[in-house]
User: What shape does this take?
Amino acid sequence: MKYLITYNESIRQFLKPKPEEDIKKALDNMSIDQKLRHIRKYKLNDLLPKEEIRDLLLYGDHTIEDLMDFLSYDPFYNVLTDDEINDIKIDFRDIVYSIDNPGEQLSLIDEFDCFGFFTKDEIDEIKYNFELNPKDY
Assistant: This one.
């Protein structure tokens, strides 16, 4: 029979909060998207100045899907000015209108809950185009 080996292992060191400096160093080694996702996931928005978060949002090379996802997090949304948010809305609208398939247009708008970016008439027109030939889409 094998001898039972007892270990005196403790998880206390893993449960202690990490120092703020260690977290900042870890963020420095991440890409822009990784930083934003990490900040959002662990609610670390107070760790960086608002101006830096704003710059990460505006000057990062994000897909529109990623940007819309980031903006669904209120602390990220609140660091942007109304003009910057309107520019993002215009970019989103341009992307939607660049898609030839009305079904995909509606799906993209619905996925990001961006019906407020369009007027009722614009949404009705997209729906009408979809209903004309649903088999084609």
